Amino acid sequence: MADGQALLEELKARPRWPWLGIRMRPGRKTLVNAAGEENAFAFRPLLTVNSIDAACQLAIAGAGLATPPAFLVENELAAGLLVEPLPGWRAAALGVYAVWPANAARASLTLRLVQHLAQTAG
């Protein structure tokens, strides 16, 4: 996959590619391949939006590059409305965090759900 490696190097060297940014995420991407190799690079978004759904719609409209979860764009990929510029590479998984205030009720259903998720996803 030499072409993919060359494109990754170009992504690193040219931070002005037309990336679509998400306001709550920093201007940094880490891509991972099936072998677990990671490539990280900084970028400056062409456009910044408040939701991944908005970034998906802009990417479908041809406004720029995005790294949405596959389930959000699987139909568009299958229909040829989107293409994967780096087949075999995916955005690194993001962490999921739950913050619980110390003074909240300990017997609440929300806390029990958070504890269950922490045990099963951990």
From TrEMBL:
<dbReference type="InterPro" id="IPR005119">
    <property type="entry name" value="LysR_subst-bd"/>
</dbReference>
<protein>
    <recommendedName>
        <fullName>LysR substrate-binding domain-containing protein</fullName>
    </recommendedName>
</protein>
<comment type="similarity">
    <text>Belongs to the LysR transcriptional regulatory family.</text>
</comment>
<dbReference type="InterPro" id="IPR058163">
    <property type="entry name" value="LysR-type_TF_proteobact-type"/>
</dbReference>
<dbReference type="Pfam" id="PF03466">
    <property type="entry name" value="LysR_substrate"/>
</dbReference>
<feature type="domain" description="LysR substrate-binding">
    <location>
        <begin position="16"/>
        <end position="120"/>
    </location>
</feature>
